[in-house]
Records
---
Amino acid sequence: MSFAQAVRGRVPGGREQTMLRQDVPPQRSGPADRRSTAAAPGPPSSAAAPASAPSRLVTWLGRLGVPAAGFAVFQTLVGILPQNLAGEAARYCVAATAGVGVGAVVWLSAALLRARAAAAAVVPPEPAPSPAGSLPELMDGTYEALRRGLAVIEVPGRGPLTGWPHSLAESDPPVHPTAFGTAYGLHLLLDIAPYDGRIRAGEVAETLWRLRLPGGGWAARSQGSGARPEVTAIVLGALARAGADPRLLEAEIHSCETLLDPDHDVSGLANTYVVTNVLRGLLRAAPGSRSLGGLREVLVNGATADPARGHHRCWGAALATGRGNPAPSAAHTARAVVALDRAARVLGEDARQRAVREEGLRWLLAGATAPGGFGASDLDNCQEEVRRPVREDPLHQELLSVRHFSAAWVVRALMTDGARQLAAESVGLPAWEGQLAAAVARVWGMQQGGVWRWDDGPMGHPVWMAYQGLSVLRRYALLVHRP
């Protein structure tokens, strides 16, 4: 069974519902499953539905045997046919023909009834318990993990903070909410949209404002006291999505644009992760920003051709510059494709920008025909280090460790507008569907109970990974659902 088939389930009333499955013990079954089982009528049994009188008669005749039935009809007709029926021979011929015909009819009727009785007598095997849970169950698991990992503390000078650290597995006190973890936790909370109010999105959004650095903007826990554009853009996107006051956002948006100025952050402008983060964040928080066009041009110009995959343009960890071509990366190419796709929706695009975006998709699609096939290295998680010189001390560098959920980004890129049409023109729809299913299966397999695991350490269950994994599975469920 394909993954696309596995995401379909039945609900009471005959309505079809798209589901995603996760591993659960075989004996587990939810109320919906029991209702579906009870509502589905089983085949009728002989004990429940007694045979009718005509059925009993035909069965009794069948037991006598075809020759007996035929001979009985023959004898009856010989006795009742008129004596002047063109001689004795004609009378016997008519009777014999009728006898053979009735015998055949009795034999066929009896065989049919025996077959039906045998089918009714066979008890259908109990359906094997499904090894997976539904998408709502997975979302419930994610919500419970958010509740367990929620940190509520009082910080002198900042007031109460309600948010998340980097990982849902961090439990050593005191656990301090971070801007990065809390922003992705807010994204998750808005996706899950719980109705019980045990986690209030308004309190989480207020915490993000309280985590703002004294000079404005936000930074990761390892980046010190200076705001960084890639984190600031993520926070702004979450706040805008939560309905923050545009007037409050305006000053921070301007600060984010300034942070990525070439005179301020040359290293950031040369990094695919940084540029794509800022582009996606500003598209959500400030779709009218004048910086968006320039950021897109930086990303488009940073693509490089890959001879190993038809000379299609792609992206690596570093944007292509005159100092050489970066190593192609599926995670970074998918990030760039997603960012350019979103920019095209908001800003439109010219022929050149569209060509580069589509080449990135073709590069990902070409993985299906690459040596070793798609689904191996392209889907492997990867890690990079973003280094920046410290402004106060140029001899030292600031280090940000970035981990990429490659399979999730590849799925996002392959589900962008136009990906299906490009696949039909290049590798073919079956190859695209296979790539997509393999990537979704990898995303699905990295979670347990709605929590995605990078590794077994205390930092091994990052909040951002749960957001990316769940959002991908929800989007894929909508893609394959057929009402």
---
Amino acid sequence: MATVLPSPPRVGMVSLGCPKNLVDSERILTRLRAEGYAMSPDYAGADVVLVNTCGFLDSAKEESLEAIGEAIAENGRVIVTGCFGKEAKTIRDRFPNVLAITGAHEYEQVVDAVHAAAPIGRSPYLDLMPGAAVEDTDLKLTPRHYSYLKISEGCNHRCAFCIIPQLRGDLVSRRPDAILREAEKLVAAGTKELLVISQDTSAYGIDIRREPRAWRGREVAPAMTDLARELGRIAPWVRLHYVYPYPHVDAVIPLMAEGLVLPYLDIPFQHAAPAVLKRMKRPANDAKVLERLRKWRAVCPDIAIRSTFVVGFPGETEADFQYLLDWLDEAQLDRVGAFRFEPVAGAAANTLPDQVPETVKEERYARIMAKTAAISAAKLQAKIGRALPVIIDEVGDEGGATGRSQADAPEIDGQVLLRDAGHLRPGDIVNVHVEDADEHDLFAAPA
């Protein structure tokens, strides 16, 4: 008589917020899968649902509460983790039946909560089988051809509008050899593009600066430039996110000119007016940023700079805002996102005087988006007629494909829409000829 093996418990996951949260979700699911749990793509098939929350803005907290409520309504057995988990009372007041609540990157506590909610039944047929190591069975929530690579946790800055240090703590850098080992495994599994993320990538290693590690017969220092150089030897594309414009960042630009690292920097400037930056308590707010951008472009003409800005910060005057618009005219950033200032519980900015009315925020938001859209459109128009390398994300049924140039990060930047590309596959890196452009995207054909 055949022995029927027990079915493992199934875990569902809802992951909200930034790519750093997505990496946390991947690690949690990888650990659970290595222990024998199965993954469920929907609420109905899950024995327990994990909701990895965002707690950076009040609007993000509300989105997290809505996701928790939906999971409870659809399934009923819910564990909450992530940044919003620090406000357990708020969650319990709304949803008293939540099984457990943990904070950001508290992997062990999440796994323990899953053990309690949906324990795995022991089987002599399964428990005697050797399992692969966790790092050899990593579960990804992104497409096979690109992966987020988190190099540190936490942040040492104390920006007035931000509560990340309260949620995730001070900077804790990972060992460079551990990062490089993970990168090699991701590439071996099919990753073509590594997206390097942290709260402050340019600060990587300052807490372990005296701890170089042996790697492939040489020592690698825990510093952004050294790490970027080694990553560039491992992956076809390496993209750097969340970099502050400190002077030492200059050293990574030649790596871009050499082709080791993508000519792309994601720099969260947040504003340009000195008075606003001072109230924000922002680092690297000197007057040399524009000169630094000019020097970077002289070394690597194709470098793409993306950034985000906050409009309507307390005390922002019309003169401050106009200063920002004029700065953008001179900076000519390639990609820009903007946010209306939003109070966050626990942030120092909430108590600042001269709060900006919502109507003024909306008007300024519309103006900055119009300004940056015009700059983007002009920059993309200048690429018409050029040949550019593109990584393919999707291939359609009618011969079209969608990809990204080196100036485009997934989800946040533009796309390259291709014709006559049905022979390509996701993850292919191909040269294309740019035929047209609009405010955000390029239109091209394989070269």
---
Amino acid sequence: MSEDQPHHIGQQLRSARRQRGMSLRTLAGLSGLSIGFLSMVENGQRNLDRTGYITALATALRIAPTELTGQPFASTGLTTASAHEAVPALRLALMGLNLGLSPGQAPPAGQPMALSARVTEANQLYHGCDYGILARKLPNLLADLHAAVEHASPSERPELLRLLADAYHPACTMLLKYLGYPDLAFIAVTRAAEASAELDDPLRNALSGFFHAHVLMSAGSPDLALSRAEQAANEVEGHLADPDAYALLGELHLIRATCLTQDVHRSGARRTGDINEHLAEAAKLAQRTGETKAWHLNFGPTNVGIHHVSLNTELGRHGHAAAASAGVRPRTLAAPGRTAAFHADLGRSLAHLRGRDTDAVTELLTAERTAPQRIHANSAVRDTVSALLDRQLPSRTTRELRALAHRMGLQG
């Protein structure tokens, strides 16, 4: 492995293990992974691109997963760098804004219609992976929403609370999760939950549970994430009179399936079976809802198809992931983030299949063209790119791969 790849997870793993005075044998016993596999990971002979393995190792070492992945990453790209540069102001906004505390400013003019348009724009920026622009816009948007809520009449307050929650998630929560700031994402999802709690709306509470599960999973607690998602699903199942409830229930099946990919202590067959059950239920619900943007999400048959690829990739069933990609048209969603995730996960799986390295690079480059800011911040993609750099590839593919590595900050 090249010495100029400072974010290679194997190097981070060796450093963390040695700092704790832990042997490979002890780490293997605590994580459930083999000594041989861990040795190869540390020596750069195997890439560690499965979230479940990273979570198991972080738990065994008693550290956050981000300490292994190296997130948040410094980027050589101006747009991605601008997102990280905007995080300090966003951090202060998250810490300083709270329901019941006056934001010290007058409410913005033209509310709530103008605020609704700004919240819609923020969510569109998130799904478009324009993280730099979104991160700069969020502090003022959140401050204006809090001011509007605190000065609202009783009849206006519920709608403004819904807008506030919709600004916190997915715009704020998922932005911070994907940039590598799970602690800040947790603050955002907590602020959203406070707004939803006042509404006393079971579906809104369940939506908070969905995003809460996302953040818990990224923080390395798949068990708590699964529990929270199951609680949210139970809430939704009691309120299916609302047509949008079916889309939310479908998303909760998908997040539960994702949580299960990280359960490395469950047998592979049982884990795969449980995940497939959730996928089947989500597919049934998707047939009922069709493609929908309910809750500022992207539930429907296409997103279920994308999850077939991503979940099989996380399970290490790379041939199944490649097969599942056939017929999936992610651009149907007009959501660059989901399209990029599809190509990135497919590329990761192809990198594990004999004779598919060139195809893997093609998919990773497609993912980057679609949503560079999201791909540059993806630790699994970064580790896959690092692994591919050591392989014999056609000269043109090698040049393209090295250029990608440079843009991701993996090579000087």
---
Amino acid sequence: MTAVAIWRSIGGSDARRRSLWGCFLGFSISLWTKTEVVRIGLNNSSITDASVLLKHYSAGAALLAIMYYIVAVYGHYPADGEMARAARASRFIHLAATKTALASFALMTVMFFTIVDRSKPSNHFVSDHAGQWGATAYMTVFYVYLGCSSANCLYQWAGAFRREERGLLRVGLGMMACSMLLGVIYAFGRMLAMWFWLAVQPSEGVAQKVESSTEAMQLLLFVLFALGVSVPASEKGLLRVRSWLSLARLYPMWRELMEAFPNVPMEPPRSRFQELTRRDMDAELRLDRWIHDVADAIEKLRHHVPNNLMAAAKESTDHSAVAQAYWIKAALAAKEGGAPAGSVAAFEQPVATDQAGEVAWLRRVARAYKKSNPGQAQSLLAAAGADA
């Protein structure tokens, strides 16, 4: 949680990113207060049981950040259909969440310093205060806030899970919904247990067993939530990695084409290292530009080669991608040799249904282009000229 909070703090400044950063920061602080060193250190400070109040503040702030994230995601949909219900719920949350959170925190603070028995530091707050009405009232305020916030997130993410068709995003939404279901069970289950203990004083062993089992449930909640948020991001990350690898594969052919036609790219080609490490443009967008750059350069090359160069290239190999790579190599050699511009030569380009198919084809062409040599290009030009 801490690592993700640090990572997201430098990931952008839009509403969604800020909300997720706040969520992970709050949860990470809450988890740190559960560690033995931090818990004992704070509980034995001048403010007895300070770790409890800090843990509840940070967890409550994290849930508030989640609800703002939900507003940012689901608050802008048309006013009809199932999505409209999610949007209306999000807008209601936007109006009520902050006021409700502040009122809950204020009430918890007053109760913590007035009616909660803090005569001695506690190691496990819930079990140590089992059967005490002050701690029960204090925890009831927190658990109602926690349970209602989790229920709202569960409603939004379960609905999004039903509507979503993309595989990884659906898995992530399912994990996030399950984490909030555990949050609802955790909050209201603990609250009911504490109220029951007011009537029937539990033994120390039973109280600790209930607290430890629900604590394990909460830790599972954190794991599912972190994984659920990360799964959709991993899909985008994988797409970015694939785009970057495609750029690395296309670079040699793209650079030679751009040097032959410097007016085609929006800016002159940089070195391989500079192109693959630049951060002013997403890899997916640069890959899309490179695809168009290559297509534009090929279109210009068609004016500098014999009409039957493609037929000669196809006769030299059984693979269409290799034939296209040979054609490009020979066409560049012809232009560099001073071939004047003329009529448009024949060229075969398979029709791709989407960008992924186009990229896959160009990667095969670029692989064959890298293996080709000037001698093959000259032989192919000679064969095309002889046939002509």
